[in-house]
Amino acid sequence: MTLGAIALRALIVGFIVSFAVITGFAYTTLLERKFLARLQHRVGPNRAGYIPLPRRGRSERKLLGGILQPAADAVKLFFKEDATPGDADRLVYNLAPMMAVIPAILILAVIPWMPGFSLFGAVFEPYFAIAPGVNVGVLFILAITSIGVYGVVLGGWGSASKYSVLGGIRASAQMISYELALGLSLLPPIMLANSMDLGVIVEAQGPFWGEWDLPFVIIQFPAALIFFIGAMAELQRHPFDLLEAEQELSSGYNVEYGGMRFGMFFMAEYMKMVSLSAIFAALFLGGYYGPIPFAADLPVIGLINMLIKIILSLMLMIWIRASWPRFRYDQLMAFGWKRLLPFALANVVLTGALIVLFG
Amino acid sequence: MIGMVEALLKGMATTLKHAIKPPVTIQYPEVKRPVRYRFKGRHALKRYDNGLEKCIGCSLCAAACPADAIFVEASENSDEERYSPGERYASTYEINMLRCIFCGYCEDACPTEAIVLEDDYELSFYDRASAIYTKEMLIDPVPEDGKPTPQETEPGKYDRSIPDMENPQ
Fold it and tell me: Tens-digit pLDDT profile for chain A (359 aa)?
């Protein structure tokens, strides 16, 4: 395949995947609101759009209430007044939301969605992704997720408000503290699969059936745990969401933003949630080889497996949000540096030793 | 460390246990919760069984109102055009719902028990002019065996403004 053909294919696939994930982001917010509501004895949004089921003689049943809520939210955000604070650094203020969103979309490039297949003459090998076969996929993910914090910090700094600056500072400090543990938790899967290519890591976890291939969450439970904790810290989600601790900072780095500029921060957050869930699925849960067998024969099953895993991981994050209190700042730092980092290091050393000994 | 993990898992089990229970939400516009016995909602102007209005336009409610929300203008009754027993009736009765604090002092002040705070709490408006509730909006409908006001009545039957009332039980 020529370079041009590769670029064109990446462009088309990239468009489709980005579009799907942006829709997915919208429905992630709905999932969060609905599931969180259920955990708190509430109903959640159920007004905007539903499928009416007329029943003879009785009042109609409403199915999937709130299905259009994300659309209503988007319309609201687009038409809201978008005021810029007087003292804001205009360039930075306008640039920050974009700098938050772009890395969130860029992470999608290396995520494997389906096993390789060919459709109408176009061959997707070795697996279906925007950029399949990138042999530094894991490094790429680490680099891009770290860039994401620039949007947050610059947004906090550019809006010339002490609360947003404090939120931004907290974000960067938290990111630095947990990035290390996150990076170290990625090493065991890399060592086990002997590759940084996410597709190869997924293949190493095998189709589960028949052979002795297990998802890395079973072989490497500590690494999976550290990755999940680190991912939640990276996403600034509960219980690590103290950069937008309402009680202290009202809403943190985005307090001066309104309208779609705020919406972009929001979008970045939820898209990173989706993409980190996808990475978690690929690295530890066996990617597209999942609960439903025969993914290797029928690639669509691979996509369904991937979606199941992403949704389960999202629901776990929401469940945690409903259950746990927030860390105090010193607790956050102590947990990151004194517990998680040594644990991750020990895990890497132990895994490495075991691979060398029994390899 | 073990204790911490145990506590965290216990917290998650608790939330999951509550996820199975049905939501406590009342679907408001479709399902309305009945109000309490002594709830103070929108005011209503009452009528006697024969359809005559209880309000005699004395303005005691307006005087009692701490928020100055009530405006009453009285006019003379006559036997040909009788609205209420006695000399006078309220030709204009307006309550500004933006001022009203629903304290119920008007209810206490009323000598004929004409104004009562009822259970309607759906008071919302798009502009300030529509926040003023007029007599037509406040007054109760005519009872079944009564006649609408103004009524033509026989002279001398309704010269007493304030009815005989019993002590509260």
Answer: 688 888 888 888 889 888 888 888 888 989 888 888 888 888 888 888 777 777 777 766 677 778 888 888 888 888 988 888 888 888 888 888 888 889 888 888 888 888 877 777 677 777 778 877 788 888 988 888 888 888 888 888 888 888 888 888 888 888 888 888 888 998 988 888 888 888 888 888 876 655 556 788 888 888 999 999 989 888 888 788 776 666 666 677 788 888 888 888 888 888 888 989 999 998 888 888 877 777 777 888 888 888 999 999 999 999 988 888 888 888 888 888 998 899 999 999 999 998 888 86
From the CA of A332, how many Å to the nearest CA of chain B? 15
CATH code for the domain in which residue B50 is found: 3.30.70.3270
CB contact under 8 A, B12 and A42: no
User: Phi and psi for B66 in degrees, rounded to 5?
Assistant: -75, -20
Q: Is residue B23 part of a domain?
A: no
With a CB cutoff of 8 Å and minimum separation 6, the contacts of A157 are A89, A92, A164, A165, A168
Q: How far is A46 from chain B (nearest CA, A)?
A: 10
Q: How many domains is chain A built from?
A: 1
pTM: 0.81
- Does some domain include residue A338? yes
B12 → closest Cβ in A38, A42, A319: A319
Identify whether B150 is preceded by a cis peptide bond (ω within 30 of 0).
yes
Cβ separation A41–B23 shorter than 8 A: yes
Determine the residue among B1, B25, B30, B31 to mutate to test chain A binding: the one whose Cβ has the most chain A Cβ atoms within 10 Å: B25
Query: In this structure, is residue A228 part of a structural domain?
Result: yes
Q: Does the ipTM exceed 0.85?
A: no
Is residue B124 in some structural domain? yes
Q: For residue A72, which phi and psi values (nearest 5 degrees)?
A: -65, -40
- Beta strands per DSSP E along chain A: 51-55, 58-63, 114-119, 122-128
